[in-house]
Amino acid sequence: MGSECDLGGFEQVVLETLKRCQQQNESTLVWVMEVAKCIRSLGVGLPCLELGHVLVSQLCFDDNNSSLWKFVELALSSGLLYPLHVLSLLTSRVLPHRRSQPKAYRLYLELLSRYAFSFNPEKADACKEKMTKSIDVALQLSQLYGLRVLELGQAFVLFFFSMIIGLIDSTLDDWGLRMTPTDGPSLALGSTDHHDMDIDFKGSRNFKGNEHHEKMRTANSFMAIEVLGKLTESRKAIVILRLVHLNMPVNFNGLLQRLQFLEASELVSPHLNSANQLLAKLSANIQRAMGFQYQLNRSQLIGLLLDIASCKPVSCFHSQFGQSACWAPFDIYMENAMDGKQLPIKSAVDVLTETIKTLQAFNQASWQETFLALWLSALRLVQREHDPLEGPIPRLEARLCVLLSIVPLAIANVLEDEAKLCHSSTAGATFTGSVESGYGHKMNGKGCASRKDGLISSLQILGHFSGLLCPPVSVTDAANTAARKAASFITNAKNQRDIIRGGSLVDASVKAGGDMRHLIVEACIARNLIDTSAYIWPGYVSASIISLSDSLSLDKSPWLMFMEGAPLNGSLIDYLIMNPASSLAEIEKLFSIALNGSEEEKSAAAKILCGASLSRGWNIQVPEVAASLMPLCEVFGSLKPASSNKSSKDDEPSIYMVFSFAFLYLLRLWKFYRPPLEQCISERGAAVRGELTLEYLLLLRNRSIASCQVETYSNPNQSEPASGKPIYIDSYPKLRAWYCQNKSCIASTLAGLSSGNPVHQVANKILSMIYWKMTKSAASSSNSSTPTSNSACGSPGSTGEDAYQRPVLPAWEVLEAIPFVLEAILTACAHGRLSPRDLTTGLRDLVDFLPASLAAIVSYFSAEVTRGIWKPVAMNGKDWPSPAAILPSMESEIKAILAAVGVDAPSCYTGNSPIMLPLPMAALVSLTITFKLDKSLEYVHSVAGLALEHCASGCPWPSMHIIGSLWAQKIRRWHNFIVVSSSRSIFRQNKEAVAQLLRSCFTSFLGSLNISTSSLSNQSSVNGLLGSTISVGGGGPSVAPGFLFLRSCRTIHNVHYVSDVIVGLIAEYARNLASRWASSDSPRLKSSQTSLSIASVRAREVATLGASLLCVTGGVQLVQELFRNTIPTWLISSRKQELHVSAVPRIVEGYAMAYLLILSGAIIWGVEAKLTTCAFSRRARAVGVHMDFLAGVLEGNISLGCDPATWKAYLSCLVGLMVRFAPAWIQEVKLETLRKLACGLRGWHECELAVSLLERGGTAAVGSVAELLNVIS
């Protein structure tokens, strides 16, 4: 802009010039030349904003001189005026007075039709800021849209949208139709300081009688719709409308409401019938903008890769459906959750909910296909241990828990999300008529039922997969009961109406008996996901079951009897201990009795709680279970036993026993689980895994309760959790005191105690008890390995003499003293004052006295093993038990398992080398092999097994083989289970073994790579990766490589190495896949687009497998590292370039790596904008850092070592995938970074990809898109 001039003086000069030209009857061209000369003489630059203000102030007055309008048009075309500025001023002036000035309105519409898209930001460089402010003030954009208008492009987009809204509102009003928009006032009415639009600004209403004006007004309303139809069909309009639709949905919904109102008012207004075609065209244009997708440059290979839709190789009715790699994350996550070594921040239900939505989007699948794949993955999970290897910890119940509880709960969340979406989409409608969730999608109930319909059809199709539906033996009766229940329903219905006669409900060919589908359907009915109409699905119930249903009655469950008020007597207690509860209500009732019942009821309820309901549960409920166990421990641990001479043979559980049940389970939850990797310390690329803390467990529990309360407040129909108050460890002083002491013992060696200290006195009493038993007769000592069945851990029953020696103390006082007892007897053994056999006997007697002592023993020995201050002892069969008898054969079996999955394991022992273990480790394993095997002692065995594995992690590598051999000698039927478990230990620190196992995972899933043909030998298979079952052949157990990796990945020390290996394997497989169909001397395709489609699908399979394995190994930390360092390092690092290799394999490599990054982030963080504050900030930082890196490369600030084709493919595909699958991420990137990326893409002739990136950048990026309108059009 030139020098500033006084507006009043400028206006006077311009008007005088125009008047003179008019008096001299000059042509409008001369007008333009004279005014331009006048402007130059005043030192004002072009385009001239002041001229626009002067002219617009004159156009809407008096006679609306046609010559003045012609002059304006010529001034616009010659650059004297800026079209956007003038049209904005005219819009604010003409629309409110269109009825009093119909001629001005007509001319305004003509100008709008011609110049609405005449937007060239470069021509306004001299006065951009001033022009933007002028447009904002004229149209009141900041007030209308609630944002600061700082860019000219932003003002242009808002002007165009405001103009559409204004013209529609004007037409509605002209036709006598009234509606109340939800998006604020309209330009058609002007601001509050304007007069009513029906009144001439001179106060005259005489225009109403002017017949010519009435006809013009009528014609104008039709012309307005016609102009809108013309403008909105252009490519530029589509871009603008799509911008508003994506970034300002509330305002765009206001536009949709107006169109809906017009559609609903067709029968009311005669004008609408006449304008029907015009309105239909306008509506079609708006719809086209909503569904518009940018067409990438299909002349380039990258454009083809991004344009190819997700391939669905088989029909959902095919037996191989669900084994496709695109659904593998379901299987991998579920199988990984069975390990239970790590406690995630998010519950399994929430994780699975996000995974369902993510995979449905990435695979572009229907909800029927998505839910079917989910059910098949869960069924494979159960069938994988249909006949499990016998071991100390039952796992089948946990697998059934996933199938029948976790999956239905996750599906319930998905259905609830859709219901909320449907509800929110109808909340803003304020007019009468049809209510729609979006234009063209009427809400007659079918829209919200789409996901539910997909669920129902998936359950119906599930019957075709009979190979997965055979129930395990433990639930066969339950499956049969479910089938009989459906048969009874049909039989009862038969008595009311003739539903059997047609034969549509009963399939006589179906084999009698229930299967897993019957259990799944019952689980869904119980969760209100479906109703009992499922019972009459064709083929759901066989005719033979229906014929038996009249004579069979369903027995009442003992749990139901308990809920109905049956007293806790002997037989009922035994059943409830051995069979897990079926609902949360049953657990809550038991918990209430355990805290508030009579003394007899408290003991019985506590023992039931710690029975099968807990041992066969799953770690998904860990924080809540831990919080429930704490008050039980606090109360029972503070009670003193009534008498020291009460026999353990009594049927009533002792106070020590009840406390031990609860306390050992509490220990199991926090001692052997691991916090998420992001909670650990990272040192030099390796994660230092910290132990889980009770505080962390309670934090998770309280966070979950707070989240439930927030949802309850927002949804009044949702019930509040029974225990809604936060819980802190300070609420339990006894537990807290022991917990602090335990942490102190782990952190450092024990400090000495004075003889008068109460803890010292208790320790002396315990030592006296132990040494008294050591001095008993040789007969008693020799029989110590064959204890009676009534002891907690298999020791002899208490006699009166034994009881006399036992201290009568609360359990907390005993636990506090045990570390000092252990230090004393371990030191005595190390110095030869106590024999290993007596040490083992003393430890076992301590556990017999108080089973909860095992917790202190495990903590103390684990810490001592880690400190490494105890000399190793020889496991020679004299002082300590010897594994020599079976160690060689066991090592051979372990090597065979590893060899089968491609891992070359070194030999552990030779015939001459001694078999050694650290003293604390030897003492612990010697203690555990004395435990009697009994179903009622599962709570002890589960702790002992985890403790051995935990302690062995601090010993040299082969220690687990020794421990496993000792246990395999004791319990031969556990042999195969122990061999498989011991085979995992090599991966803890052996990086080469980890790399070999990962390669086998890719090979087993994708097929072996044939070097001569560069092709994969067979189809990808989930069963190849994880195995269909854990088989035991003639040579021993055999496990799939993926199964072994998932059982080992939690213990791998350097998880960053895993990430590097996975990235390398993906790059290698992607290149080799592409080499099959690309010629060696040209980037053109060797065959048809079908071949490219197959190659791209296989590249996605590679990336999908890699993303799934990476996420289960390192979680958030590894994914953050992938964004920040791993992928940037892969791009920067130079590598050997093969000669005579086309660009195609390198392009596919870049595509696969981009898919890996996007899918990994989506699995961990999801693709939606709704996140917790912590997760949102982590995702925003990770994505922002990576995009900044890419922008830095484009600017030339960072040099790359990869092939240029790989780099270009990676960036283009990453942007394309992010736009398609994770658009919410883009708004978390800095606007300046988005502009740099878009600029780079434009330089690669990917203009539409650049626009699609910017349009997702939020309202701040709107202006940047507008500036590209001329390029993409």
From TrEMBL:
Entries under InterPro entries matching the protein: MED33A/B
GO biological process: regulation of phenylpropanoid metabolic process
One cellular-component annotation, GO: mediator complex
Listed Low complexity bias regions: 780-792
Chain positions covered by the region annotation Disordered: 780-801
PANTHER family named in the record: OS07G0681500 PROTEIN
Name of the molecule in the record: Mediator of RNA polymerase II transcription subunit 33A
Organism: Carya illinoinensis
